[in-house]
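Obj: model holo form, ligand = heme C.
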Amino acid sequence: MQAKTLFLAAVLIASQALAEDNRQLATLPPAAQEALREEMQGNLLAINEILTLMAAGKVKEAGQLAETSLGKSAQGKHRDKPFNARPGPHMPPAMHEIGIDGHTAASEFAKAAATGDREKALSLLPNLTGACVACHYSWRTR
Ligand code: HEC
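Output (holo structure tokens):
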């Protein structure tokens, strides 16, 4: 009973905190925002696929996918677009930094996974999702 009440209180406090939305607003041009949203949907797909491969013991494949979809190799994919459709340059530096850290984390995971060392790769996996969380909890674009 008491535990249930406590849990409810925690949920209420959490939803109140969410309702306040203390995240900083980054204003991106509409085209850049659209490009970012597309990239994000790809990120979600990639993370899910990487977890699925890891669970199936396909460590090297997980590493390859992490590098090409989220790692340093995936950085600068908007380079050839018009300036107002490139999310990176319009982000405040602190926000952009989190994005770059995410690419680095994915490449570090990929490097460990390429050796087939499952334990090492697993230990680096949370750094990858950590970058998604760090940015989403600090920044919003609308
Ligand atoms: C540098 C900041 C940053 C990082 C890192 C980041 N995101 Fe996002 N993400 C955003 C922003 C900003 C939006 C809102 C875009 C918009 O205006 O629609 C977003 C939106 C999304 C959405 C919603 C897309 C939609 O359909 O509207 C998903 C899903 C998502 N991100 C997944 C991820 C995943 C998974 C990762 C990690 C692999 C990640 N993001 C990393 C900033 C980030």
